Amino acid sequence: MAATSRGTTPVPPDARPRLTVLSGPSGVGKSTVVAHMRKVHPEVWLSVSATTRKPRPGEKHGVHYFFVTDEEMDKLIANGELLEWAEFAGNRYGTPRRAVLDRLESGEPVLLEIDLQGARLVRESMPEAQLVFLAPPSWDELVRRLTGRGTEAPEVIERRLAAAKVELAAEAEFDTTLVNTSVEDVARELLALVKVL
Ligand code: ADP
Ligand code: 5GP
C-alpha cells in the first residue's frame, strides 16, 4: 500500500505517555518523596508551578516554583497560560500549561504535585490522568511533620490543617493511595506509577 498518510503513528492507548497528579495534605511529605525519587531518577520530569507564596529558605525561583506577584498571577490566569490554578491557604498556585503539553507531546511522562482542587480540575480537563494520593500514617504524624518542618507561622499551620481535613476526606476520588511511612518505599512506588511506558 502506498504511504499516503503523514504525521505520527498512532500510539496504542496503553503506551500513551501519562500525566500523573500527586496530591495530599500539606506536610505529608510530597516534596520530600518527589525529591528523593528525582535524586535517584533525575529523568522524571516535574512541572514547576507558579505561586504567589513567598519563597521558604532554600527555595529557588524556577526550580521549586516560579515566585510571582499577584499582578503576574492575574496575567497568567487571564492569558490562559495555566492548565489549572487554585487558591490554597491564602496564596494562589498554578501549573504552566505549555511546558506540560510540550512534554506530553514529546512522549515523556509528566508529574504534577498540586492540591486537591487542582487535581479535580485536571481530572475534568484530562480524564486520562492518573491521580495519586499521598496519605500520612496518622493524623498525629501529619501534625508532627507540618509543625516540625518549622516553615510556617502557627496561624498558617492552622489553615493548612483545616485544608488537610478536607483533603483527607477526598482520598476516595483518587486512583491510588500511597501511605508515606517510608520515603524510600513511597518514592519507589511512585516511580513505578509515573514511568508506565
Ligand atoms: P509536603 O511537600 O507534602 O508539604 P514535605 O515534603 O515538606 O511535605 O514534608 C514535611 C515534613 O515531613 C518535612 O520536615 C519532611 O522532612 C518530613 N517527612 C517527609 N516524609 C517523611 C517520612 N516518611 N517520615 C518522617 N518524616 C517525613
Ligand atoms: P506549599 O506552599 O506547601 O509549597 O504548597 C501548598 C499546596 O499547594 C500543596 O498542596 C501543593 O501541592 C499545592 N500546589 C503547588 N503547586 C500547585 C499548582 O500549580 N496548582 C495547585 N492547584 N496546587 C499547587
TrEMBL record:
<comment type="similarity">
    <text>Belongs to the guanylate kinase family.</text>
</comment>
<keyword id="KW-0547">Nucleotide-binding</keyword>
<dbReference type="InterPro" id="IPR020590">
    <property type="entry name" value="Guanylate_kinase_CS"/>
</dbReference>
<protein>
    <recommendedName>
        <fullName>Guanylate kinase</fullName>
        <ecNumber>2.7.4.8</ecNumber>
    </recommendedName>
</protein>
<dbReference type="GO" id="GO:0005524">
    <property type="term" value="F:ATP binding"/>
</dbReference>
<keyword id="KW-0808">Transferase</keyword>
<dbReference type="InterPro" id="IPR017665">
    <property type="entry name" value="Guanylate_kinase"/>
</dbReference>
<keyword id="KW-0418">Kinase</keyword>
<keyword id="KW-0067">ATP-binding</keyword>
<dbReference type="InterPro" id="IPR008145">
    <property type="entry name" value="GK/Ca_channel_bsu"/>
</dbReference>
<feature type="region of interest" description="Disordered">
    <location>
        <begin position="1"/>
        <end position="23"/>
    </location>
</feature>
<dbReference type="InterPro" id="IPR008144">
    <property type="entry name" value="Guanylate_kin-like_dom"/>
</dbReference>
<dbReference type="GO" id="GO:0005829">
    <property type="term" value="C:cytosol"/>
</dbReference>
<dbReference type="GO" id="GO:0004385">
    <property type="term" value="F:GMP kinase activity"/>
</dbReference>
<feature type="binding site">
    <location>
        <begin position="24"/>
        <end position="31"/>
    </location>
    <ligand>
        <name>ATP</name>
    </ligand>
</feature>
<dbReference type="Pfam" id="PF00625">
    <property type="entry name" value="Guanylate_kin"/>
</dbReference>
<keyword id="KW-0963">Cytoplasm</keyword>
<dbReference type="InterPro" id="IPR027417">
    <property type="entry name" value="P-loop_NTPase"/>
</dbReference>
<comment type="function">
    <text>Essential for recycling GMP and indirectly, cGMP.</text>
</comment>
<feature type="domain" description="Guanylate kinase-like">
    <location>
        <begin position="17"/>
        <end position="195"/>
    </location>
</feature>
